[in-house]
Amino acid sequence: MNNPAADDTEDVGSMPTFFKEHVEFFDSLDWILDSAKQSETWSLSVAPEEESERVERLIRIINSYQEQPMCLDPHLGRIVGQIIKVVQQYVYVFYDNTVDSKSAPISVTRFDGIFDLLYILCKVRGYKIILRFFPHGVVDIEPVFATLWLFSADLNATAWQSRYILLIWLSLLAMIPFDIESIDSGIANLPAISSISSNQSLIERWIGLGKLFLGKSGCEMEGAAVMLSRLLSRKDSGASFQPSFVKWAVQQINDAASPVINHPNDESKAVLPIESVLQINGTLRVLCHLFSAMTSPALIENQIPLLLDIFSLDAFDHHSVTRKLISKAVQRLALLLLPVTVLEKRRVHARPSLRTNLNGNGADTVSSLCSTDPCTGGEDSIDVDIPEEVELFVGILLQKLRDKDTIVRWSAAKGIGRITERLPLAFAQEIVTAVGDILKEETLRTEDGRIDVSMTTEYSWHGSLLCLAELSRRGMLYPQALREITPWVVRGLTFEIQRGDYSVGSNVRDAACYVMWSLARIPNPSSRRRYLIENPVCVEQPVLHFKNMLADRFEVYRHPLLHHLCTVTIYHWDLKTRDLAIRALRELAPVSPRYVLTLLLPEIVSNVSSPFLAVRHGAIAATGAIAESIAAEIKADANATKMVLDVADNVPQRYIEDFGAGLTLTALAFYMGCLSRAKWNIGDNVQSRFFGLFEMALVACKNVDGIVDDFTAFVDAYGLKPEQHSCIENNIKVAKSGTSRESFVLAMGALAEQDIGLLCSVVTKGETVEMRRNAAVALGRLCRRTQDSKRNDKTWAVGVVAALSQGLNDHSIDNRGDVGSWVRKQSLQSLAIIFDHDNQMAQRISAEDGALAMRLVGQVLCATTEKIDKLRAAAGRMFEILLYKQQIGQNGTAAGNVDVGKCLSQLRQLDPMQPDHCSANGDEFTWTDAAAAFRRVVPALSVSYEQIRRSLFEGLVFTGSAEPLGKFAVNAVAAYAETLSETVASESAAQWNVNGLVAELTRLLHTDKRTSKIINPALIVADQLIEQGALLAADTKRQVAADHLFEVVCIHGAADMGDDGAGIGSLLSETEWMQDTVDVKEARSRLTKMIRRHIPPS
Q1: Please, are residues 715 and 677 in contact by the beta-carbon 8 Å criterion?
Q2: What is the three-class DSSP state of 945?
Q3: Residues 464-496: tens digit of each pLDDT
Q4: How far is the C-alpha of 282 from the C-alpha of 329, rounded, in Å?
Q5: What are phi and psi of 123, to 5 degrees?
Q6: What is the pLDDT of residues 210-221, one digit of tens each?
Q7: For residue 264, is it left (φ>0), alpha (ψ between -120 and 50) or beta?
Q8: Spatial separation of the C-alpha atoms in residues 280 and 271, rounded to whole Å
Q9: Whole-structure pTM value
Q10: Residue 499 forms beta bridges with which residues?
């Protein structure tokens, strides 16, 4: 029996679940480390070339695991351990070399590749995990410090990756449990670095070195911040260096921001220079890490007012990263000022397990907490001294919930959640209320009680909802607060504000969903259940998922979902969203037909005459979707039936004639198509009214593909009256402005068989390319509908194929480019429809007109060499249908014409893909791959029918002369030429020789005497084939080719070429073209250059 679980695991995809390249990785790593261990190479400025190439390969392997870094975990110890062992050896020798100046010099760049490999590991897996495998002995401190010092002496001479690895290594060494002063041996011979005195102690120089990197961009700043925070949070250095460092940091920020602080009204100084911004960011980053590592604020109490002033500055409005770091520093400083006792107590009561909470068993755990009044006190009312600065810090974070950058709002939301968790309940409730008040800013209440957010900003809503979610998942939203914020969260689920031709609010909706997820942690299960059931608002989700959900388990969600769909989404301002809503409604209405019929449909129908275009369009289309999906239920209700059938009459006439008429008519066409597909009984008058609306829609609308589909359903269901049929034909014949004629040509695909002749004439003689293209489309649809009628007589077949064959010759060009390709592509697609539906069509065509059948095969082969991918794909599909889906008689004969059958039989034998392929398997072959497509069709040049060969070869020549696909065509022909012999093996063999290839090239030059359409491409292709040596076997034909070319030049007129004419004639007549290829190469190059100067591009 099949194991369903096993089948499901195969759908995971290609995401790796283990380190699949570990064998290759460790083989290369061992080789690299063996090479790096050779100390005699350490004086080199760069690593050996092979070592560098292997390092780059390993970096590419590790980078491929950025989305699944945990796959590396089982091997990290071995990888990092082996690498850092060699780096440690290098650092020791480097340190010894520094102490002893007599030692051999060591390059500071020799290990750049090794350090780069360590950096990539830190980037992919995180530096905290990688540091677990770094050595951290006391003996490592001074060598690593000295190495970093030397690497920092000249920042331009070393790679930043090397300095970053040494910085984070020092951050680990800063945590050793020994007094650093006892380790300081006074390292000598270190080069001077500005702002750092060589007479300072090890820890002072250590701090100075870290300060040096705080103003650097990139990872060095982060590494230095982590290193300094760990160093300054040590017990032996904290009391001595923390206050002075924080004072220095405050001064650095003030100095960097001084232009804005001292000149607040000077716009020229409103934007800080990048150097100042980097210095501020680095300083703030180390403060964030330091505040997180400190256990008491006692040492920095004097600096808190200064920090508060900095955090309140408006000087950083243009720098989002700076504002985020300020937000992070504010929250960490506030947490440093607060005790942790309240936090630990609340964790016990307010955060039961998610599984227990969802099962409804968390009520007992939190009953005491829920019954406590936060305002009157209770067991949570603990006498906690809250510093006044905390209120100011919370105010800063509340303000940053409105920030314009997401990273700032996220940081502020998490900070408020963490701070609130440590406050007594009464204070915490005030913060919850303040966050809820932000949602209410600049909002209005409509007459029906809805919340109008048109005057608000998405920033404040997004930040507030994120904050509410953080508070909720920490157990801070109690029943009273939940009741107050519920309608605002519900409004957030549908938050959207239109800004011109786009809208904002997706991030707000995501945040509201985050709030709903966090509500699973609400202590009171009854409140949570009531909230989730009463407000299950859904926005744009996969239709099938919700259909299954509604039908199977969550019946309680059906009505709210449908209500939201029918009252909000179908009236959305965005057309694509409305279309998705209509599709969803069509699928979901049958789930609860009675509810839709009695409560939703009347309100929808009442909006079909709305003055607002989006509302009117959505209502009309939604009525049609409902009428189609629950037709049986509506037909059983006379009032509902009348209500649906009167929709078209209820739309005011001005709405289908004035501005917005196109969209309204499109909705009406969809509505009429839905009624037609559901086979509604509409009556003669309604049928005439509907036809008139379709006619107006075809005239007024530009994109009529959907309208034509609906019109086809209308014709199939109710037919056309004679005068209506004549109306369609007359609209094609009468010249009208706009695109109405093209629309009616496309609509001809919905008519009867007697109109095929008219469409054929439009394909061949249509005035515009759009008419010819639409006629080709309509012809395919009409023939398909005729074939579906199962009529045996197909007298139209030859005429249709002949017209579409002529459409394949449409090479019209205008200022839009090769517009004739539209006709060629649609002709190929219509031919594919006709031949795919009737496997005897080729026999029928060849029996009545063998020349047409042979010409069609050649045209299709020629089209497979087109430069346009979609056109080539359409030709490839038709080619496969001819070869493998058409019946051919015995011995390769088709009824009525032996040549066509033999030709198709030969092409089958020459096709390298064979019938079991047929381009359905895109993994192996696709016609849009030009190189593969040309390789597939070029063997068809060996077919024994000259007409087919010439058609295919001309297509290859035209494509071969144009870039970028030309090289693929020429390469395919050159590869094919290498398989040919000088002579044909036998007369009956389907084989072409090299001399025939050269003769065909010269024929193209010889036969087209008055135009350069084929001459220039032929010359270019011939030049490239000779350059590749593809025509070496055809030496006897060179003189013939030269003679033909000489004749062409004479016909063009050598006098018009000036001096080049005489030069060309001399080269052609005097050169011994029968010499070796190398000897004539120079003459051929000169000849090609002179000819190209006088032949315009094709």
Answers
A1: no
A2: coil
A3: 999 999 998 888 887 788 888 888 998 998 898
A4: 12
A5: -65, -40
A6: 998 998 888 999
A7: alpha
A8: 13
A9: 0.69
A10: 502
